Amino acid sequence: MPRLRLPGDSAALETPLELFDARVSQLWLEIGFGGGEHVSSQAKANPDAGIMASEVFIEGIAKCLSDIDDMKLSNVRLWDEDARELVDLLPDACLDRVFILFPDPWPKKRHQKRRIIQPDFLRELTRVMKPGARLRFATDVRSYADEALTIFLAEPRIEWLARTADDWRTPPSDHFRTRYETKNLGDIEPVFYEFQLND
Ligand SMILES: C[S@@+](CC[C@H](N)C(=O)[O-])C[C@H]1O[C@@H](n2cnc3c(N)ncnc32)[C@H](O)[C@@H]1O
């Protein structure tokens, strides 16, 4: 993946907007993109955004690469390893948006510590988000929805942008459905939490 794969060193990632072939003014990150439908749809709809997208599942990476090629997208770059390693390499306050959509749910109690939303990782994410940046989290597993919300709201700089009591039950207007979402494997209707990072 020579032109699409992000370099694995912090020096190259110091000026991430320059890593895209397209001229972009915003930097977005999608973590665990699966087959990449959401990545390619957002990239097409937002040519001004450079999207860094991370996935470890090789078939998903191949599918996303094929879509990027078919759609002639020059504002996407892929990271084919653990997203947490990429986040560690990023400079402070560089991201405008983050998407964590239907992450592996690990529904069994004894496996829940494997979930990607953990206090330490969230703190590291807030380091690389700009003040005012948005983070969208979606899940269809009740225990993950509850646990993640508790972790997000414990972070002092994170504000939950819930406008009404239950608007988090409705997909945001700029959401593109993901392959995992369509499988309805969870125990609740999907929830979409939208957060903003404050100063
Ligand atoms: C349940 S799937 C959902 C995929 C996609 N977001 C969707 O909604 O269709 C979660 C994905 O996250 C990926 N994943 C899990 N841990 C990851 C990590 N640390 N870094 C990057 N990707 C990860 C998995 O390989 C898997 O494809």
From TrEMBL:
- Broad EC category: transferase
Asked if the record carries the keyword Transferase, the reply is: yes
Which domain of life does the UniProt lineage start with?
A: Bacteria
Q: Name one GO molecular function term.
A: tRNA (guanine(46)-N7)-methyltransferase activity
Which protein family is named in the record? Belongs to the class I-like SAM-binding methyltransferase superfamily. TrmB family.
EC nos: 2.1.1.33
Q: Which residues bind substrate?
A: 108, 140, 178-181
The record's catalysed reaction(s) read: guanosine(46) in tRNA + S-adenosyl-L-methionine = N(7)-methylguanosine(46) in tRNA + S-adenosyl-L-homocysteine
Pfam families in alphabetical order: Methyltransf_4
Which protein, by its recorded name, is this?
Answer: tRNA (guanine-N(7)-)-methyltransferase
Show the taxonomic lineage: Bacteria, Pseudomonadati, Pseudomonadota, Alphaproteobacteria, Hyphomonadales
The alphabetized UniProt keywords are:
Methyltransferase, S-adenosyl-L-methionine, Transferase, tRNA processing
What does the record give as its pathway? tRNA modification; N(7)-methylguanine-tRNA biosynthesis
Q: Which PANTHER family match?
A: 3-DEOXY-D-MANNO-OCTULOSONIC-ACID TRANSFERASE/TRNA GUANINE-N 7 - -METHYLTRANSFERASE (PTHR23417), PENTACOTRIPEPTIDE-REPEAT REGION OF PRORP DOMAIN-CONTAINING PROTEIN (PTHR23417:SF14)
Q: Source gene? A: trmB
Question: What role does it play?
Answer: Catalyzes the formation of N(7)-methylguanine at position 46 (m7G46) in tRNA.
Query: Entry's InterPro entries?
Result: SAM-dependent_MTases_sf, tRNA_(Gua-N-7)_MeTrfase_Trmb, tRNA_methyltr_TrmB_bact
- Residues the record lists as binding S-adenosyl-L-methionine: 30, 55, 82, 104
